[in-house]
Write a structure and sequence with these properties.
Elements lengths: L5 E5 L5 H11 L3 E6 L2 H5 L6 E4 L5 H7 L5 E4 L9 H19 L2 E6 L11 E2 L10 H17 L5 E5 L2 E3 L7 H6 L8 E4 L7 E5 H13 L7 E5 L3 E3 L4 H9 L6 E4 L2 H7 L4 H8 L9 E2 L2 H7 L7 H11 L28
Parallel strand pairs: 1-2, 1-4, 2-3, 4-5, 5-7, 6-14, 7-11, 8-10, 9-13
Antiparallel strand pairs: 10-12
InterPro entries: Epimerase_deHydtase, NAD(P)-bd_dom_sf, NAD(P)-dependent_oxidoreduct
Protein name: NAD-dependent epimerase/dehydratase domain-containing protein
GO cellular component, one term: cytoplasm
Length: 342
């Protein structure tokens, strides 16, 4: 095992991977971000640096991980496409790189591993009996990592609810609830009134990941943690917060057209996989973070209104000025929001 504080991040040009890279950089890690297009990625102005490679190519991941003590595996097939054929080969690449470098793997986990039998309180040791193909793939991925831990390849899994944040390229918030780059005249609600649903503000989740990374040497070889985030207990708090921040006098809140998604899914893989996670919006659940709090202390927590406002700014959606803020500045993106490479 190396003592270097070097982290390789796969998926750093995507969603939570980019936030994780930023958080690790802020914690003093030397961050290498794996990407297929170094020149384009470097134009983002990120303070970490990019190395060329492909997460599906074991040799390039092994090369990129040389000297690293941490590998954040945040790479996913885009827009749900190719999950069944790509997720496990990428995991094998990461395991091979961790084995060669002695690095600890950190995997941002999802709730799709679980079925109805695990709800309403999802704990790190809850049974994983998913009802969807995406869930079954994620279970197979975690089992592969757990088996590797028995053979010396250490892993941390930090599981999150649905992400939102100013720099995410893929999320229900960005792709299913609002229209980026436009004033908010309507909000789609994938949930239902009275059905509790957990949300993770991505910078908060990434900060928790970085705090675990800082103490990884003290953690078990295979460790799972859950991030509680913002629990929308009413099933409407998130969409109502978005509506209240809108500059428009009237904002219509409507349900996501799940039936239409299912029909479109007959012809489009992204729509098909989106429709299949409907059950996670129809049953109340929350993530039990007791073991995470025991490890790092209280979760990083940005107040919901602030987090939603920053997110909307990052998406180019104007919001009402806050008290004391000069009018005309509401659409300026705070917190150094930047464009991500593709």
């Amino acid at each position: 095992m190396t003592a270097s504080k070097i982290a390789l991040v796969l998926g750093a040009t995507g969603s939570i991977g980019y936030e994780a890279a930023r958080a690790l950089d802020a914690h003093g890690w030397v961050v290498r971000a794996l990407t297929r297009d170094v020149d384009r990625a470097a134009r983002t102005g990120a303070s970490f640096y990019f190395v060329e490679g492909d997460a599906t190519d074991p040799a390039s991941v092994v090369q990129a991980a040389r000297g690293a003590s941490l590998i954040v595996h945040a790479a996913n097939p885009p827009s749900y496409r190719g999950w069944s054929r790509l997720v496990l080969p990428m995991a094998d690449s990461v395991i091979a790189a961790a084995r060669a470098s002695g690095a600890r793997i950190v995997l941002p986990g999802t709730v799709y591993n679980y079925g109805p039998d695990a709800m309403p309180v999802l704990a790190p040791d809850s049974p994983q009996n998913p009802r969807t193909e995406k869930g079954r793939v994620r279970v197979a991925l975690e089992r592969r990592l757990e088996a590797a831990a028995d053979d010396g390849v250490r892993t941390i899994i930090l599981r999150f609810g649905d992400f939102f944040g100013p720099r995410l390229r893929s999320s229900w918030f960005r792709q299913g609830m609002v229209r980026p780059g436009r004033p908010i005249t309507g909000v789609f609600n994938p949930g239902r009134a009275g059905i509790a649903h957990p949300w993770t503000y991505a910078p908060d989740g990434a900060e928790a990941l970085a705090r675990l990374a800082d103490i990884e040497a003290t953690l078990p070889p295979f460790a799972r943690y859950h991030f509680a985030g913002h629990l929308d207990e009413t099933g409407t708090t998130m969409v109502e917060t978005v509506a209240r921040l809108s500059t428009e006098p009237r904002v219509r809140i409507t349900r996501v057209p799940w039936t239409a998604l299912a029909v479109l899914g007959l012809f489009n893989e992204t729509m098909r996989e989106s429709a299949r996670v409907k059950s996670f919006w129809r049953a109340p659940y929350r993530l039990d973070n007791a073991s995470l709090v025991a490890a790092i202390g209280p979760e990083p927590h940005t107040p919901l209104r602030n987090a939603v406002r920053i997110t909307l700014h990052g998406l180019g959606c104007p919001t009402k000025p806050e008290p004391g803020e000069p009018s005309g500045t509401s659409s300026t993106a705070p917190n150094n929001t930047s464009e991500l490479p593709s």
